[in-house]
């Protein structure tokens, strides 16, 4: 999980339930800014997570997938999307992160929070609808996007499906 201060607590809690229940260990990564560890807090300051692994100290391609925890934390964490072959999942306001680097969204089908839909489209993303609202979850290659924390289970199932499909294509020893 890529995390930064002001993360979404609903996503944080659900991710911590979902992945271990499906046999996956969670490792939190962030930019530690030269510190051995940092504690990050969610929007309402209730949830905290201590991170001791700097995203710059690991090879992101060594991971089966990476989830960017949403809310306003994502403006610091754009780097993961550009890692070739890595499954990237982002939900709610998370796709906003990629709007500042339009080449990451150009022609990709995505969904997001309704209030950033036009930012995503203006950055070259193809916004996917289901009726008159954004699709709950969209998979486009290695990018899995979700509309809102209320669709976390659908999003997580799609993300894990992509991670497991990609693992079949990884060289031995990579997970």
Write up what this structure looks like.
It is a single chain. Helices cover 22% and strands 21% of the residues. It is α/β, with parallel strands linked by helices and 175 residues long. It has one domain: Class I glutamine amidotransferase (GATase) domain (Rossmann fold, 3-Layer(aba) Sandwich). A hairpin with a 6-residue loop joins strand 2 and strand 3. The chain is globular, with a radius of gyration of 15 Å. The protein starts with 8 loop residues before the first helix and ends in an 8-residue tail after the last helix. The C terminus is likely disordered.
The spatial strand order of the largest sheet comes to 5-6-12-11
Number of helices: 4
Oligomerization state: single chain
Instruction: Assign the CATH superfamily.
Output: Class I glutamine amidotransferase (GATase) domain
Proportion of helical residues: 10-25%
Q: Assign an overall shape.
A: globular
Please provide the count of β strands.
12
Which stretches are low in confidence, meaning pLDDT under 50 for 5 or more residues running? 170-175
CATH architecture: 3-Layer(aba) Sandwich
How many separate domains? 1
Write down the CATH class. Answer: Alpha Beta
Name the helix and strand elements from N-terminus to C-terminus, one letter apiece. Answer: HEEEEEEHEHEEEEEH
Q: What kind of sheet is the major sheet?
A: 4 strands, mixed
Q: State mean pLDDT (0 to 100 scale).
A: 86
CATH topology: Rossmann fold
Termini separation comes to 14 Å
Range of strand content? 15-25%
Cα Rg: 15 Å
Instruction: Please identify the structural class as seen in this structure.
Output: alpha/beta
């Amino acid at each position: 999980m890529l995390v930064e201060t002001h993360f979404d607590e609903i996503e944080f809690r659900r991710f911590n339930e979902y992945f271990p229940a499906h046999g996956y260990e969670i490792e939190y990564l962030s930019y530690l800014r030269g510190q051995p560890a940092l504690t990050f807090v969610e929007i309402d300051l209730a949830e905290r997570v201590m991170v001791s692994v700097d995203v710059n100290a690991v090879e992101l391609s060594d991971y089966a997938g990476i989830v960017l925890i949403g809310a306003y934390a994502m403006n610091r964490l754009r780097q993961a999307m550009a890692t070739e072959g890595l499954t990237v999942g982002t939900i709610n306001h998370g796709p906003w992160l990629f709007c500042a680097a339009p080449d990451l969204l150009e022609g990709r089908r995505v969904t997001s929070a309704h209030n950033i839909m036009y930012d995503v489209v203006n950055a070259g993303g193809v916004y996917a609808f289901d009726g008159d609202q954004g699709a709950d979850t969209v998979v486009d290659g290695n990018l899995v996007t979700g509309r809102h924390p209320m669709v976390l289970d659908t999003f997580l199932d799609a993300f894990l499906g992509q991670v497991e499909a990609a693992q079949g294509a990884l060289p031995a020893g990579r997970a």
